[in-house]
Amino acid sequence: MGKLIISEHxxxxxxxxxxxxxxxxxxxxxxxxxxxxxxxxxxxTALYGRKTFEMMDAYWPTAGQGENATKHAKEHSAWYNEVGxxxxxxxxxxxxxxxxxxxxxxxxxxVDEAKxxxxxxxxxxxxxxxxxxxxNMVDEMYLxxxxxxxxxxxxxxxxxxxxxxxxxxxxxxxxxCNVLCVHYSRI
Length: 187
Known about the structure:
This protein is of the alpha/beta class. The chain has a single domain, classed as Dihydrofolate Reductase, subunit A, CATH 3.40.430.10. 28% of the residues lie in helices and 31% in strands. The protein contains 5 helices and 10 strands, in the order ββαβααββαβαββββ. The protein has helices at residues 30-40, 50-63, 71-82, 109-115, 126-134, and strands at residues 4-11, 15-17, 43-49, 84-88, 100-103, 119-123, 140-146, 154-155, 166-174, 179-186. The strands form 2 sheets. Strands 5-4-3-6-1-7-10-9 form an 8-stranded mixed beta sheet, with helices on both faces. Strands 2-8 form a two-stranded antiparallel sheet. A hairpin with a 4-residue loop joins strand 9 and strand 10. The radius of gyration is 16 Å and the shape is globular.
């Protein structure tokens, strides 16, 4: 059985986006990309909210094809094109296509069914994360803590209705971009 794993950049005060969803405070580099690549390799399904899916789908299918494509672009593009995708959206139901399924909040059993086959990886998509926390569905978290206080914005942990206990599994500091990744698993 697989796990539902979220990978989120987060501010020191717990936000995943600024008040208008801005992400200009997020730091990353090739070392961080290579690290993320180690757990994308374990996921057979990607899970997104509509907005993040539209952004990803506009870029990743062809991002690795250019002559100047980076190693990360080539690897992530290949992964994106290979894996099944589930998109949580109320407005895109019925637009399924090859390796792509659209669901709404009443169809979360599709996520559980996909977990029976492989790990599911979710990048970004804060509203989807909120829904998953509200339904106690998240199994692991990779939190990429950026050294910034936003003061206001989109919180990561909105939607947690009941106490959830988590176990730290490890951490890694990316000195070149000043980001600390903390890995947690659900107890």
